[in-house]
Amino acid sequence: MPSYSPFAAPDAPSDPTHISQLDIAGDLLARLRDTTTEPRPDIQLEALTLAVAADLPVLLWGEPGIGKTAALTQLAASLDLPLTTVIASVHEPSDFSGLPVIGDDPAEQGVPMAPPDWAVRLVRAGRGLLFLDELSTAPPAVQAALLRLVLERRIGDLQLPPGVRIVAAANPRSSAADGWELSPPLANRFVHLQWTHDHDVVVRGLGGTWPRATLPRLDPERLPEAVRFARRAVCELLSARPGLVHRLPSNETRRGGPWPSPRSWEMTLCLIAFATAAGSSREVLSLLVRGTVGDGPGLELLAGLDRMDLPDPELLLAEPESAVLPERGDLRQAVLDGVVAAVRKRPDKARWDAAWALLVRALDTGSPDLVVVPATTLASLRQQDWDVPASIERLAGAVSISRRADRAAARAAVATKASR
Amino acid sequence: MIPEPTRALDLDKLFAARLQAARARPYLATALFALHTVESRSVPTMAVDRHWRCYVSPAFVDHTPVEELAGVWVHEVSHLLRDHHGRSDRVARERGLTGPGERLRMNIAADCEINDDVYGDGLAWPQDVVEPGSLGLPEGQLMEDYLRQFRLGPRTQSHAWLDCGSGADGLDREWELGPNGAHGLSAQERDAVRFRVAQGIKGRPGNAPKAWQRWAEEAFQPPQPWRELLGAAIRSATSGSGAGQDYSYGRPSRRSAGVPGVVLPSLRRRPPRVSVIIDTSGSVSDAELGSALREVAAISRAVGGRRDLVSVLPCDAAAEVVHPLCRAEGIPLLGGGGTDLRTGFAKALRARPRPDVIVVLTDGQTPWPSAQPSCRTVVGLFPRPYDSAPYDSGAHDEDNPEYVPDTPPTWARVVEIGSTSAAR
Which residue intervals define the domain AAA+ ATPase in the entry (chain A) (predicted)? Predict the structure, then answer.
């Protein structure tokens, strides 16, 4: 066809300086691919890295095209593992459960289940990151075969070596075209991570600068502390709330998601230890814990961790002058309540005085309304022969605020009665 | 902790008001105390940002009585607890709302959601407060619903100065300290505070009003509209037990010829048969029923069902809705009559070939079969209009205390249809 196309060779082939259109196109592509990276914290990727390092099966839930594969590529590079991507929906179940190969005498020798080539290569390498993509669009039989691979790490007769880590990805139920849904026992074995995109990151990346996440490194010196901390966090919660040990998801919205059981608590314990050893933030830990035991129990565990971070009332009572109280009002009030409760439990004059000193210190360093309730309770603990400490004068400000609030409440009550 | 101003913010008055607020609403105390106060001359009154900072105008504190300030504290913290900034962002994205005018509308709608039960009972009504009534709207709805029902105009003119900050409508203001400023709460800390408040309300439900109890129940539920839940339930029911598209060793694969000695499975397709049993005792509106039935038909088509494989068994009262709908959708009608769901089940299971899935659309006021039927069952449950309690809370008919309806059996997957919490 003689028609002109932009990629056709120019008319003057004898020109020595001529460059073919394909070379120019290649040049343009190279310019488009020439992007830089900038360091940027990425808590999703950090959570994924920790879960993979802890050798727990991870399930990424995210809409198609959101950058799950890109994240896995970065993760594989940082863990120095070769990445094998298997698109589940284009495979047959036998690709994961093994192909029955009929030999000369099946009755005598049995029918071996032959694994596919990528599995053989993975076993030969001894290590690697296996990414099972598009789990949700695969037919049920393929999913069933895949789950055996994820949970038992077997492909046909082949056992994957411990150096191989497995990550799966699925589309959320709302965008899944067909019936993929985890049954509760299967959901319980995964760390569920919701994968979302950050608008700023995408816009900046398309502008030429992609983020480069600094990934967590486990600190060998913190390992004993990490194990101790994780065990204490989980055991304290579960001894106080025995109902949280095992709770099947009861309603339809929570189906297919994480839920608490001894198995998922063990996974949580493991993840807390890893996050502690890596010095990860609470945000990362929150993603991991809520993705393992579910939102409710996860948030209770995190609330427990917040309380573990608060200063010990006994230490505060021992040295009230140098006490450092939390800046945030609700935490500060929790500490002061704890101090008063400690005095109530073992009342004596010295502890009572120390508690007053602490309240004065709280008044000097923060807002006065927080001190009112603990001061009232502490005053009620007074015994006959205890003299009121001199420092109590300085709490007059808190008392006047309390009276002011009382008067305002009385006025409000009158006004409410009058108007409605 | 607070920068030295030219005319000082009356902190004592402000904190006395917070104390009164915490005494009047003890279940909100944690959230009230978690707010970090920032003095600001750019806000007209008080405002919050999404990082749980509370900006306060010194002049506003000066000329407002303590009891009104207490109400404003509760109002502002309610914006944060109810995640109005996150919900505003979602609504803006879903409905394509842009610009400051739309954000002002979101602020007004959010105020409407809060204000119908925030004041009174120990807290004074502030002046010029936005109420659903002042815009001619009903009480007790969600911000997303209010947002559809009014425009900026003469009625909202008096609220044009209204500014509760980015915590109320998601739009960042230039006077806010932003995510990197001091004393902000991280996303995890915000969730932790909201969770503690929700736990406190659930632990002692007697103290909190109904709206807060509902909030506490739903605060950490992911938004899941019933259409998606019903769709997921039907899809998962139809794709199991040999129906739908799946691999089977029952027949050799066409690929087998190329790989001698290896047995390959072949992809078999058997479209699912769906029977829809409709039971209405008059309390379900035609619109609800129509949308649910249309949804079931659409889903079963999406999973590969053909029109002739979806059948509908209407029970008495619904017939006049069901018939035209089925004609329009090309669905064959079966039977009719019988108000007892058990006869509906028996009839559906008598059909040859048997259905793979039975979908029941009902308001739950019916006896259920005692034994599990031989196919999977999905129940679409319409909430009863005169009792908003969920089906498993032991709700019963107030006119007849003897009558306690059976809850749907555990072998059925139950999806509540038409609950308005979808927007959260």
Answer: 54-200
pLDDT in the model for residue A34: 83
Say if A124 is an interface residue toward chain B (CB within 8 Å): no
pLDDT digits 0-9 by tens, B120-135: 777 877 767 787 877 8
d(CA B281, CA B386): 14
- Whether chain B has a CB inside 8 Å of the CB on A407: the answer is yes
Q: Is B173 in a helix, a strand, or coil?
A: coil
Lookup result for tokens 């995190």: A302
Q: Which residues contact B7 (CB under 8 A, 6 or more apart)?
A: B58
DSSP β-bridge partners for residue B244: B270
Q: Which domain holds residue A86?
A: 36-98+113-211
Pairing of strands B36-39, B46-48: unpaired
- Note the pTM of the prediction, 2 decimals: 0.76
Dump pLDDT digits (tens) for A32-81.
888 887 888 888 888 998 999 898 989 998 887 788 888 888 888 888 88
Q: Which of these, A360, A356, A354, lies nearest to A317 by C-alpha position?
A: A354
The answer to whether position A387 is within a domain reads yes
Is the backbone peptide bond immediately before A216 cis, with ω within 30 degrees of 0? no
ipTM score assigned to the predicted complex: 0.75
Same domain, yes or no: A317 and A302: no
**How far apart are the CA of B266 and the nearest CA of chain A, in angstroms?**
9
Q: Pairing relation of β-strands B53-56 and B46-48?
A: antiparallel
With residue A314 as reference, give the H or E element that holds it. helix A313-318
**CA–CA separation, B159 and A199 (whole Å):** 32
